[in-house]
Protein backbone atom coordinates (compact mmCIF):
# COMPACT_ATOMS: atom_id res chain seq x y z
CA UNK A 1 0.00 0.00 0.00
CA UNK A 2 1.16 3.55 -0.70
CA UNK A 3 2.56 5.27 2.38
CA UNK A 4 1.55 8.66 3.75
CA UNK A 5 3.41 10.18 6.68
CA UNK A 6 2.20 12.99 8.91
CA UNK A 7 3.60 14.89 11.85
CA UNK A 8 0.81 14.97 14.42
CA UNK A 9 2.14 17.05 17.32
CA UNK A 10 -0.67 19.60 16.80
CA UNK A 11 -3.41 17.06 15.98
CA UNK A 12 -6.11 15.67 18.21
CA UNK A 13 -7.77 12.25 17.83
CA UNK A 14 -10.42 13.66 15.49
CA UNK A 15 -7.75 15.10 13.21
CA UNK A 16 -5.90 11.80 13.04
CA UNK A 17 -9.10 9.96 12.21
CA UNK A 18 -9.91 12.44 9.43
CA UNK A 19 -6.48 11.92 7.87
CA UNK A 20 -6.60 8.14 8.33
CA UNK A 21 -10.02 7.76 6.69
CA UNK A 22 -9.15 10.09 3.82
CA UNK A 23 -5.93 8.15 3.26
CA UNK A 24 -7.72 4.79 3.21
CA UNK A 25 -10.26 6.04 0.69
CA UNK A 26 -7.39 7.10 -1.57
CA UNK A 27 -5.40 3.88 -1.23
CA UNK A 28 -2.84 5.08 1.32
CA UNK A 29 -1.70 3.83 4.67
CA UNK A 30 -1.42 6.80 7.05
CA UNK A 31 1.39 6.79 9.62
CA UNK A 32 1.66 9.44 12.32
CA UNK A 33 4.85 10.69 13.94
CA UNK A 34 5.34 12.91 16.94
CA UNK A 35 8.61 14.38 15.72
CA UNK A 36 10.86 14.75 12.70
CA UNK A 37 13.36 12.41 14.37
CA UNK A 38 10.75 9.66 14.51
CA UNK A 39 9.83 10.09 10.84
CA UNK A 40 13.36 10.34 9.43
CA UNK A 41 14.15 6.58 9.30
CA UNK A 42 11.13 6.08 7.03
CA UNK A 43 11.63 9.13 4.81
CA UNK A 44 12.47 7.22 1.62
CA UNK A 45 9.26 5.18 1.91
CA UNK A 46 6.82 8.09 1.83
CA UNK A 47 4.94 9.11 -1.29
CA UNK A 48 3.12 11.88 0.60
CA UNK A 49 4.18 13.75 3.71
CA UNK A 50 2.15 16.27 5.73
CA UNK A 51 3.63 18.49 8.41
CA UNK A 52 5.74 21.52 9.30
CA UNK A 53 9.40 22.18 10.02
CA UNK A 54 10.10 19.10 7.90
CA UNK A 55 13.27 20.17 6.11
CA UNK A 56 15.27 17.10 7.13
CA UNK A 57 12.51 14.70 6.12
CA UNK A 58 12.02 16.42 2.77
CA UNK A 59 15.75 16.34 2.07
CA UNK A 60 15.90 12.61 2.79
CA UNK A 61 12.63 11.63 1.06
CA UNK A 62 13.96 10.71 -2.38
CA UNK A 63 10.69 9.09 -3.47
CA UNK A 64 8.37 11.78 -2.17
CA UNK A 65 5.83 13.04 -4.71
CA UNK A 66 3.85 15.54 -2.63
CA UNK A 67 4.74 17.50 0.49
CA UNK A 68 1.77 19.24 2.14
CA UNK A 69 3.21 21.97 4.33
CA UNK A 70 1.11 22.66 7.41
CA UNK A 71 2.44 26.22 7.50
CA UNK A 72 1.60 29.02 5.09
CA UNK A 73 5.23 30.03 4.59
CA UNK A 74 7.29 27.89 2.20
CA UNK A 75 10.60 29.77 2.52
CA UNK A 76 12.68 26.68 3.45
CA UNK A 77 11.48 24.72 0.41
CA UNK A 78 11.92 27.04 -2.57
CA UNK A 79 15.37 25.82 -3.67
CA UNK A 80 15.88 22.51 -5.48
CA UNK A 81 18.68 21.48 -3.13
CA UNK A 82 16.18 21.42 -0.25
CA UNK A 83 14.56 18.34 -1.77
CA UNK A 84 15.41 14.69 -2.04
CA UNK A 85 13.13 14.75 -5.09
CA UNK A 86 13.18 18.22 -6.70
CA UNK A 87 10.16 17.27 -8.84
CA UNK A 88 7.99 16.83 -5.74
CA UNK A 89 4.70 18.76 -5.58
CA UNK A 90 4.32 21.34 -2.82
CA UNK A 91 1.22 22.75 -1.17
CA UNK A 92 0.82 25.00 1.84
CA UNK A 93 -1.84 25.95 4.37
CA UNK A 94 -2.34 29.60 3.47
CA UNK A 95 -5.88 30.36 4.53
CA UNK A 96 -5.66 28.66 7.91
CA UNK A 97 -3.82 31.46 9.72
CA UNK A 98 -5.75 34.62 8.83
CA UNK A 99 -7.98 34.62 11.90
CA UNK A 100 -5.25 34.20 14.50
CA UNK A 101 -2.79 36.61 12.86
CA UNK A 102 -5.47 39.26 12.31
CA UNK A 103 -6.42 39.09 15.99
CA UNK A 104 -2.74 39.49 16.88
CA UNK A 105 -2.54 42.59 14.66
CA UNK A 106 -5.52 44.13 16.42
CA UNK A 107 -4.02 43.34 19.81
CA UNK A 108 -0.59 44.88 19.18
CA UNK A 109 -1.98 47.88 17.32
CA UNK A 110 -4.31 48.69 20.21
CA UNK A 111 -1.41 48.27 22.62
CA UNK A 112 0.56 50.87 20.69
CA UNK A 113 -2.32 53.27 20.17
CA UNK A 114 -3.29 53.16 23.84
CA UNK A 115 0.36 53.29 25.02
CA UNK A 116 0.34 49.93 26.77
CA UNK A 117 4.15 49.46 26.60
CA UNK A 118 4.52 52.63 28.65
CA UNK A 119 1.94 51.48 31.19
CA UNK A 120 3.78 48.15 31.52
CA UNK A 121 7.02 49.95 32.33
CA UNK A 122 5.19 52.16 34.85
CA UNK A 123 3.77 49.06 36.53
CA UNK A 124 7.23 47.57 37.06
CA UNK A 125 8.33 50.89 38.58
CA UNK A 126 5.15 51.19 40.68
CA UNK A 127 4.29 54.49 39.06
CA UNK A 128 0.59 55.44 39.03
CA UNK A 129 0.03 58.00 36.29
CA UNK A 130 -2.37 58.44 33.37
CA UNK A 131 -0.92 59.03 29.92
CA UNK A 132 -2.42 61.49 27.46
CA UNK A 133 -3.13 61.68 24.61
CA UNK A 134 -3.98 58.25 23.25
CA UNK A 135 -5.11 57.35 19.75
CA UNK A 136 -7.97 55.27 18.38
CA UNK A 137 -8.53 52.77 15.60
CA UNK A 138 -11.58 54.92 14.80
CA UNK A 139 -10.54 57.08 11.86
CA UNK A 140 -7.13 55.44 11.54
CA UNK A 141 -5.74 55.31 8.00
CA UNK A 142 -4.29 51.82 7.57
CA UNK A 143 -2.39 50.41 4.62
CA UNK A 144 -2.15 46.62 4.52
CA UNK A 145 0.61 45.24 2.29
CA UNK A 146 -0.44 41.75 1.31
CA UNK A 147 -4.14 41.16 0.65
CA UNK A 148 -4.31 37.39 0.94
CA UNK A 149 -6.10 35.58 3.75
CA UNK A 150 -4.11 37.26 6.52
CA UNK A 151 -4.36 40.76 5.06
CA UNK A 152 -8.05 40.38 4.32
CA UNK A 153 -8.94 39.11 7.80
CA UNK A 154 -6.93 42.00 9.23
CA UNK A 155 -8.75 44.53 7.04
CA UNK A 156 -12.15 43.18 8.10
CA UNK A 157 -11.38 43.64 11.78
CA UNK A 158 -9.83 47.08 11.44
CA UNK A 159 -12.71 48.24 9.25
CA UNK A 160 -15.19 47.01 11.88
CA UNK A 161 -13.39 49.15 14.47
CA UNK A 162 -13.69 52.27 12.31
CA UNK A 163 -10.42 52.38 10.36
CA UNK A 164 -10.13 53.07 6.66
CA UNK A 165 -8.07 50.33 5.04
CA UNK A 166 -6.29 50.25 1.69
CA UNK A 167 -4.63 47.13 0.35
CA UNK A 168 -1.41 46.71 -1.58
CA UNK A 169 -0.68 43.63 -3.64
CA UNK A 170 1.49 42.47 -6.52
CA UNK A 171 -1.36 42.54 -9.05
CA UNK A 172 -4.17 44.98 -8.30
CA UNK A 173 -6.22 43.76 -11.28
CA UNK A 174 -7.41 40.79 -9.20
CA UNK A 175 -9.33 43.10 -6.88
CA UNK A 176 -9.91 42.31 -3.23
CA UNK A 177 -12.38 42.01 -0.38
CA UNK A 178 -14.86 44.87 0.21
CA UNK A 179 -13.13 45.51 3.54
CA UNK A 180 -10.47 47.32 1.51
CA UNK A 181 -11.40 50.79 0.33
CA UNK A 182 -9.08 50.30 -2.59
CA UNK A 183 -6.50 47.87 -3.94
CA UNK A 184 -3.19 49.22 -5.23
CA UNK A 185 -0.14 47.70 -6.88
CA UNK A 186 3.10 47.47 -4.93
CA UNK A 187 4.62 50.03 -7.31
CA UNK A 188 2.06 52.54 -6.00
CA UNK A 189 2.87 52.14 -2.30
CA UNK A 190 5.05 55.26 -2.14
CA UNK A 191 2.03 57.40 -3.01
CA UNK A 192 0.03 55.83 -0.16
CA UNK A 193 2.58 56.07 2.65
CA UNK A 194 2.27 59.84 3.33
CA UNK A 195 -1.41 59.24 4.13
CA UNK A 196 -0.86 56.11 6.23
CA UNK A 197 -1.15 56.12 10.01
CA UNK A 198 -0.45 52.39 10.33
CA UNK A 199 1.48 50.31 7.81
CA UNK A 200 0.74 46.62 8.31
CA UNK A 201 2.87 44.05 6.51
CA UNK A 202 1.33 40.66 5.75
CA UNK A 203 3.78 39.73 3.01
CA UNK A 204 5.31 36.34 2.16
CA UNK A 205 9.05 35.88 2.24
CA UNK A 206 10.19 36.24 -1.37
CA UNK A 207 13.04 37.92 -3.20
CA UNK A 208 10.64 40.71 -4.17
CA UNK A 209 9.56 41.48 -0.62
CA UNK A 210 13.04 41.66 0.89
CA UNK A 211 13.60 45.17 2.33
CA UNK A 212 10.38 46.40 0.78
CA UNK A 213 10.30 48.80 3.74
CA UNK A 214 13.60 50.62 3.74
CA UNK A 215 14.83 53.95 5.08
CA UNK A 216 13.28 55.90 2.21
CA UNK A 217 9.85 54.37 2.66
CA UNK A 218 9.88 54.81 6.42
CA UNK A 219 10.63 58.49 5.81
CA UNK A 220 7.49 58.73 3.65
CA UNK A 221 5.27 57.73 6.57
CA UNK A 222 3.83 60.64 8.59
CA UNK A 223 5.43 61.72 11.84
CA UNK A 224 3.93 59.64 14.65
CA UNK A 225 2.78 56.71 12.50
CA UNK A 226 3.06 52.99 13.27
CA UNK A 227 4.52 49.90 11.63
CA UNK A 228 3.30 46.34 12.22
CA UNK A 229 5.13 43.41 10.60
CA UNK A 230 3.37 40.03 10.69
CA UNK A 231 4.86 38.56 7.50
CA UNK A 232 8.60 37.99 7.27
CA UNK A 233 11.45 39.77 9.03
CA UNK A 234 13.55 40.56 5.93
CA UNK A 235 10.76 42.77 4.58
CA UNK A 236 11.95 45.56 6.91
CA UNK A 237 15.39 47.15 7.17
CA UNK A 238 16.06 46.69 10.91
CA UNK A 239 18.60 49.51 11.22
CA UNK A 240 16.32 51.98 9.48
CA UNK A 241 13.41 50.88 11.67
CA UNK A 242 15.39 51.44 14.87
CA UNK A 243 16.43 54.89 13.66
CA UNK A 244 12.80 55.79 12.97
CA UNK A 245 11.70 54.53 16.40
CA UNK A 246 14.51 56.21 18.30
CA UNK A 247 14.05 59.54 16.55
CA UNK A 248 10.32 59.53 17.22
CA UNK A 249 9.44 59.60 13.53
CA UNK A 250 7.54 56.39 14.21
CA UNK A 251 5.41 56.50 17.33
CA UNK A 252 5.74 52.75 17.64
CA UNK A 253 6.12 49.41 15.94
CA UNK A 254 5.11 45.80 16.50
CA UNK A 255 7.21 42.94 15.19
CA UNK A 256 6.24 39.30 15.27
CA UNK A 257 9.11 38.56 12.87
CA UNK A 258 12.65 39.92 12.76
CA UNK A 259 15.82 39.66 10.70
CA UNK A 260 17.66 37.75 12.04
CA UNK A 261 15.20 35.71 14.06
CA UNK A 262 15.45 35.83 16.99
CA UNK A 263 17.32 39.13 17.33
CA UNK A 264 20.91 38.92 18.51
CA UNK A 265 21.30 39.06 22.32
CA UNK A 266 22.75 42.58 22.08
CA UNK A 267 20.15 43.86 19.62
CA UNK A 268 18.48 47.15 20.65
CA UNK A 269 15.15 45.63 19.64
CA UNK A 270 14.97 43.86 23.01
CA UNK A 271 14.92 47.13 24.93
CA UNK A 272 13.39 49.60 22.49
CA UNK A 273 10.61 51.19 24.58
CA UNK A 274 8.11 51.93 21.78
CA UNK A 275 8.30 48.44 20.28
CA UNK A 276 6.07 45.43 20.89
CA UNK A 277 8.14 42.33 20.14
CA UNK A 278 6.66 38.82 19.98
CA UNK A 279 8.45 35.54 19.06
CA UNK A 280 6.86 34.68 15.68
CA UNK A 281 3.76 33.43 17.49
CA UNK A 282 0.95 35.31 15.72
CA UNK A 283 0.34 32.42 13.33
CA UNK A 284 1.26 29.62 15.68
CA UNK A 285 -0.85 26.47 15.99
CA UNK A 286 -2.14 27.51 19.40
CA UNK A 287 -5.63 28.38 18.13
CA UNK A 288 -7.94 25.38 17.63
CA UNK A 289 -9.48 26.88 14.50
CA UNK A 290 -6.04 27.00 12.87
CA UNK A 291 -5.31 23.33 13.57
CA UNK A 292 -8.77 22.29 12.35
CA UNK A 293 -8.40 24.22 9.11
CA UNK A 294 -4.87 22.95 8.39
CA UNK A 295 -6.09 19.35 8.58
CA UNK A 296 -9.23 20.12 6.55
CA UNK A 297 -7.13 21.64 3.77
CA UNK A 298 -4.95 18.55 3.55
CA UNK A 299 -7.97 16.25 3.50
CA UNK A 300 -9.52 18.40 0.75
CA UNK A 301 -6.45 17.99 -1.44
CA UNK A 302 -5.66 14.31 -0.86
CA UNK A 303 -8.38 12.94 -3.22
CA UNK A 304 -7.31 15.45 -5.84
CA UNK A 305 -3.72 14.29 -5.60
CA UNK A 306 -4.77 10.64 -5.81
CA UNK A 307 -6.84 11.40 -8.93
CA UNK A 308 -4.00 13.32 -10.58
CA UNK A 309 -5.92 16.60 -10.40
CA UNK A 310 -4.43 20.04 -9.59
CA UNK A 311 -4.15 20.72 -5.87
CA UNK A 312 -6.46 23.35 -4.40
CA UNK A 313 -3.66 24.58 -2.17
CA UNK A 314 -0.71 23.94 -4.44
CA UNK A 315 2.09 26.52 -4.63
CA UNK A 316 4.72 27.35 -7.21
CA UNK A 317 8.21 27.10 -5.72
CA UNK A 318 9.61 29.28 -8.48
CA UNK A 319 7.26 32.13 -7.58
CA UNK A 320 7.77 31.43 -3.86
CA UNK A 321 4.05 31.44 -3.07
Can you walk through the features of this model?
- This protein has 321 residues and is of the alpha/beta class.
- It contains 10 helices and 12 strands.
- It has a 7-stranded parallel sheet. A 5-stranded parallel sheet has the order 2-1-3-4-5.
- The two termini are 32 Å apart.
List the topology elements.
Blueprint: E1 2-7, H1 13-25, E2 28-33, H2 36-39, E3 48-51, H3 55-60, E4 66-69, E5 89-91, H4 98-113, H5 116-124, E6 141-145, H6 149-160, E7 164-169, E8 182-185, H7 189-192, E9 198-201, H8 215-220, E10 225-229, H9 238-247, E11 250-255, E12 275-277, H10 288-306
Parallel strand pairs: 1-2, 1-3, 3-4, 4-5, 6-7, 6-9, 7-8, 9-10, 10-11, 11-12
Largest sheet: 7 strands, parallel
**Sheet/helix structural class:** alpha/beta
| Number of E strands | 12
Residue share in helix: 25-40%
Global Rg: 21 Å
Please tell me the overall pLDDT.
Answer: 96
Instruction: Write down the overall geometry.
Output: elongated
Question: Number of helical runs?
Answer: 10
> Which H/E pattern describes the elements?
EHEHEHEEHHEHEEHEHEHEEH
Rounded to the nearest angstrom, the distance between the terminal CA atoms is: 32 Å
- How large is the share of residues in beta strands? 15-25%
**Low-pLDDT regions:** none
**Major β-sheet strand ordering:** 8-7-6-9-10-11-12
List keywords for this structure.
321 residues; alpha/beta; five-stranded parallel sheet
